[in-house]
């Protein structure tokens, strides 16, 4: 297992660094052009990714200079269950009204067709339009 890890880890690191380099805007690549960094990552596939991750990209602190964990400590969102969320319940009510109106329209259409069929049967009309008339 350790033998496989010796090969898998550098390949995975190379792939990660390559994709990170491709997704980095040109103005955030430090010291060299982005194309040069791509060649370094691919040609020196053991050392290149480590150099890219350490020195190749401009790393910025988040807005306000705080780390993500500090931001999350100060801005915790209160999670609201869907059955307590008034906006969600309102959307369900609106959707339910739409469904009810569609169901009423469908039932009315069905009743109309049934009545039409009953009238045809009472008149003796089978409703077959395919039969030849002589």
TrEMBL record:
It comes from the Bacteria. Residues 115-134 are annotated as: Disordered. The chain crosses the membrane at residues 35-55. Keywords: Cell membrane, Membrane, Transmembrane, Transmembrane helix. It holds the Pfam family PLDc_N. Its main location: membrane. The keyword Transmembrane applies. It is a multi-pass membrane protein. The keyword Cell membrane applies. Residues 12-56 form the Cardiolipin synthase N-terminal domain. It is found in: Cell membrane. This is PLD nuclease N-terminal domain-containing protein.
């Amino acid at each position: 297992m350790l033998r496989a890890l010796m090969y898998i880890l550098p390949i995975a690191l190379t792939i990660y660094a390559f994709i990170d380099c491709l997704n980095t805007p040109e103005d955030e690549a430090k010291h060299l052009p982005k194309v040069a960094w791509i060649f370094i990552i691919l040609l020196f596939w053991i050392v290149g990714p480590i150099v890219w991750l350490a020195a190749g990209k401009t790393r910025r602190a988040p807005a306000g200079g705080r780390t993500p964990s500090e931001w999350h400590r100060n801005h915790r969102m209160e999670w609201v269950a869907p059955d307590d969320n008034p906006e969600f319940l309102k959307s369900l009510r609106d959707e339910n009204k739409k469904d009810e109106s569609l169901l009423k329209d469908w039932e009315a259409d069905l009743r109309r067709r049934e009545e039409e069929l009953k009238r045809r049967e009472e008149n003796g009309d089978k409703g077959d339009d395919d039969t030849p008339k002589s």
